[in-house]
Prior knowledge:
By secondary structure, the chain is mainly beta. The protein has no helices and 8 strands.
Amino acid sequence: MGQIVAVSATTSRALxxxxxTHSVPIRVNRNGVRAIAEGTGELGSLEIRHVSSTTDIREGxxxxxxxxxxxxxxxxxVAVVKKVERDTGDAFAHVLAVPSAxxxxxxHVLLVFTARHNQED
Length: 121
């Protein structure tokens, strides 16, 4: 769904995966290709940018967290590729995906805590 960005005694605030300021490192489950899924500001849409037009990514591919960056554990479903457009004159494909989570209907979420690396000043 996203990540918790603020916590108080009785509430938390989550930044949804589709928020225009959110991105998550992903990989294509079928073949391991890595990319970044970015929010579009629309609940039902993510964009995968900077994907070479020759990259093996197809409609229906499951996108899962890659684990890179340490913010999200590896292997959690993020989205399914909805559309891949390739223009012969373009170096990059235009890839749209639909989030795996029902962001407009979910009432309960599972919080996953990742280990943080302590840095001493």
